[in-house]
Structures are given as structure tokens and as C-alpha cells.
UniProtKB/TrEMBL annotation:
Membrane topology, as annotated: Multi-pass membrane protein
Domain of life: Bacteria
Location relative to the cell: Membrane
Protein name per Swiss-Prot or TrEMBL: MFS transporter, AAHS family, 4-hydroxybenzoate transporter
Length: 452
């Protein structure tokens, strides 16, 4: 009789080549985040029609625009601990169902008050989806490919937002603004059966939580990852041991993680503050500095477009370098580009180049923060750690709207605005560098996979 086979799932995933199941999960999580991006940006596409049809002012539309961002922050804070207790898959599925249903219901909103309520509730699902999708990807990908694959998946957000713009441009003239909300609600609901069937629970979570109880489920997942390597009698182990008496929130705030958690929050808060402020107010600032409306819109698009390339490049690069040092440099260079925008002349080409550079650094570094957080926290608190970073960071995106409005209403000069905006980038760079000096990742790849 042969000895019982034992598989350490952390070492197994880190040393095995990517399987078809893992690549399929990367694509499905990309799809989830693309749908998230579509629905998060959807109000911006239909806002002009709401103003015209409902005869409301731009100022009155402010609560509608910010409601989803508030919901996103709340949803991220709630969903993380739930995913660490109940599993990644049920929370992810519930989040997609929730924001799909509420976006669909928004198409039938009779007035602004109902639209605010429905967008706030939809934001709860939107805030829960992205952190859980990135957590599942982090727990099913080998350490040496994790950062690039997480950032590839997160690039789905800008892909979905951009796709929403094209869809809106086609559908609103033909079918009205309600049609965009119908599409934004139906697509997530249509994706649910595929997600339920194709996305397994996190293997790392199953084994780290209750390995004996979940042995058969773990064996089936390993069979899908590498057929013939295990059976239901295989013993599964993990590098991490669960702390059953500690909640996920207390874990990320415990002595070993407290300073790193605060520095992650500070970095991501400043990063989202800058990205959302520039995304919202850059067209107005550039236009007020003498350029046309179309050129201002194009420069802002280049800011977002640069972020797509930045996230992919930095995600690839931090897998091969010191991630904290790399992201610190990216934030500092982003701050320099933002400062230089304020000193630039009225030339379109220079503005476009600096905006693309700022987007490359700032959006790219923000996307990589998910990989940094996923590698920092242990399995039993990973979803909470990533989600709470998203939730606290989301407060930065909410604050950015008020800050931008204040700077414009106070009559700040163009140069003063961009000099001030370089400061949050400096703070983010220093904070992520300090995290690298004070903390270390929760786990590292190990050389052996199977024991008997």
C-alpha cells in the first residue's frame, strides 16, 4: 500500500505551469472587471441626456454621479470580510448579480431621487466585485506571474469603460439613455451562469481554512489543474495556518500587518484621489487654459490611455524587480509629470505627452497596488486586505470631486493647481517606499510541491 500523497497547494500553484482552467479564470475575471468598469462609468455616458430630458442642472446631477462611488467604498469594506469567511466565489457571484440587477432597475428610475438610491445600491456590488476578482486571480496564479496577470485583469476596467462609451454613442441616439442601462444590467446577469459553472472556489482558501473538510472539493480542483496528480484521499496542506479566533479585520490590523496596512491605505487613497480628480476635471482645466473642447477631451483620453500601457508594463516589471521601489518611482515620476503640466505652454503636443506620461505612471501604479496587497496578506485575510484597501482608497475618489470643485471655485491658477496635485503623488511614493522598508510579503514560492 503506497503512502498517502500530500500536496502543498501554495507550492503546487507556484511551480506548476498555468493550466487551461487558470487561463480561463483570468479571462472570466477580466470579463467581470470589464462589466464593473462599464457600469461604474455608465452615468457619465447618460448624464447629458438626463439633464436634457429631466430638465435638471449639472449641480443637481452631482449626487447621482457620486452615489455609485460611495456605494463602491461601502461595498468593498463589507465584501472583504465576507469573502474571507464564506469564500471568494459566492461573494463574487453575488456581487455581479447585485450590480447587474440594480443597474437594470436604474433604467426604470422615474426621477433623480430614485436614481441616486439605485446607483448607491449598485455601487455596493461594484465595490465587492473588483477586489474579489483580483483576489481569486492572485490565489490561482504562480508567484512569478501574479503581478502581471492581476494587472492584465484590472485593465478590464478601462476596457469596459471605453466600450461603454462606444456603445452609448451608438445606442442613445437610436434607443434613448435607458437602453445603455439595460445593456449594463443585462450583460452581468447573462454572464452569471458562465461564472457559476466555470469559476471554482479558491483552492488556497479551501485548504487554508478547513483542509480535511474540503478535501474532496480540493481534489476535484487539483484534477482540473493537473489531471491525474491527486485523488479524494490526497492530503492537502498550505504554507499558512488559519487563526480561527481572529477576524479578518483584526488580522490585517494586527501587529505584523498594521503598519503595512496603513501605508497601503495611504498610498491607494492618494493614488485614487489624483486619478479621479484628473479624470473628472482635466478637460475643464485644459480648456480654461486656452485649448479647444475637443483637444481637452483628447488630452484626457490620452491620460486614461496611458494608464492601460502603464498597468501592463509595471505589472510585468514588478514581477522582475523590487515592487515597492518600482511603484515609488512610478508615483514620483507621475507627480513630476503632473507638476510639469502646470508649467507647460498652450501647445497641444506637450500637454498630450505629459498627460499620457502622468496616466502611465499614476494609473499603472494604482493597478499594481492590488498585486502588492494580495502578496502582502495571508490567505485567511487576503480578500479583506485587498477590499479594505479599495474601500479606503475609494474615499479618495469621493474627496477628489469636492477638492476639484474647490480649486476651481477658489480661482487657483493653472500652475498652482498642478503644483498642489503633485503633493499627493509625492506622499503616495514615499508611503509605498516605506512599506517596502518596514514589511515583507506573507509568503514566498517554495521549491518542492509533492511529498509522500
Amino acid at each position: 500500500m503506497s503512502a498517502l500523497l500530500s500536496i502543498n497547494v501554495d507550492q503546487f500553484i507556484n511551480t506548476q505551469p498555468m493550466s487551461r482552467l487558470q487561463w480561463r479564470m483570468v479571462m472570466l475575471c477580466f470579463l467581470v472587471i470589464a462589466l464593473d468598469g462599464f457600469d461604474t462609468a455608465i452615468m457619465g455616458f447618460i448624464a447629458p441626456e438626463l439633464i436634457r430630458e429631466w430638465a435638471v442642472s449639472t449641480l443637481s446631477l452631482g449626487p447621482v454621479m457620486s452615489a455609485a462611488l460611495i456605494g463602491v467604498a461601502m461595498g468593498a469594506l463589507i465584501a472583504g470580510p465576507l469573502a474571507d469567511r464564506l469564500g471568494r466565489k459566492p461573494v463574487l457571484i453575488s456581487a455581479v448579480a447585485f450590480f447587474g440587477t440594480l443597474t437594470l432597475a436604474s433604467a426604470f428610475a422615474p426621477n433623480l431621487e430614485w436614481m441616486v438610491i439605485l446607483r448607491l445600491l449598485a455601487g455596493l456590488g461594484l465595490g465587492a466585485a473588483m477586489p474579489n476578482a483580483s483576489t481569486i486571480v492572485s490565489e490561482y496564479t504562480p508567484l512569478h506571474q501574479r503581478s502581471i496577470l492581476i494587472t492584465v485583469v484590472l485593465s478590464g476596467f478601462t476596457f469596459g469603460a471605453a466600450a461603454g462609451g462606444f456603445i452609448s454613442a451608438f445606442m442613445i441616439p437610436l434607443f434613448g439613455w435607458q437602453s445603455v442601462l439595460l445593456v449594463g444590467g443585462l450583460l452581468p446577469l447573462l454572464a452569471l451562469p458562465l461564472l457559476i459553472v466555470s469559476v471554482p472556489e479558491s483552492l488556497r482558501w479551501l485548504v487554508a481554512r478547513r483542509p480535511a473538510h474540503h478535501r474532496q472539493r480540493s481534489a476535484r480542483i487539483v484534477q482540473r489543474l493537473a489531471p491525474g496528480i491527486s485523488n479524494e484521499h490526497t492530503r492537502f496542506t498550505a504554507d499558512e495556518v488559519e487563526h480561527p479566533l481572529s477576524s479578518p479585520v483584526s488580522r490585517i490590523l494586527s501587529k505584523g500587518f498594521f503598519s503595512g496596512t496603513l501605508l497601503l491605505w495611504l498610498t491607494y487613497f492618494m493614488g485614487l484621489f489624483l486619478v479621479y480628480l484628473l479624470g473628472s476635471w482635466l478637460p475643464t482645466l485644459i480648456k480654461n487654459n486656452g485649448l479647444s473642447v475637443s483637444n481637452a477631451a483628447l488630452i484626457t483620453a490620452l491620460f486614461q490611455f496611458g494608464g492601460t500601457f502603464g498597468s501592463l508594463f509595471l505589472g510585468w516589471f514588478i514581477d522582475r524587480s523590487n515592487p515597492h521601489r518600482t511603484l515609488a518611482i512610478a508615483y514620483l515620476l507621475g507627480g513630476l509629470a503632473i507638476y510639469l503640466i502646470g508649467t507647460a505652454s498652450h501647445g497641444f503636443a506637450l500637454f498630450a505627452l505629459l498627460a499620457a506620461a502622468a496616466g502611465f505612471c499614476m494609473n499603472g501604479a494604482n493597478a499594481c497596488m492590488y498585486a502588492l496587497a494580495a502578496n502582502f496578506y495571508p490567505t485567511q485575510a487576503r480578500a479583506t486586505g485587498v477590499s479594505w484597501m479599495r474601500g479606503i482608497g475609494g474615499l479618495g475618489s469621493i474627496a477628489s470631486g469636492f477638492a476639484g470643485a474647490h480649486m476651481l471655485s477658489a480661482g487657483w491658477t493653472f500652475a498652482t493647481v498642478f503644483s498642489a496635485l503633485a503633493v499627493p503623488a509625492l506622499i503616495a511614493g514615499i508611503a509605498v517606499f516605506l512599506k517596502g522598508c518596514l514589511t515583507s510579503p506573507a509568503s514566498l514560492a517554495q521549491p518542492h510541491t509533492l511529498t509522500r
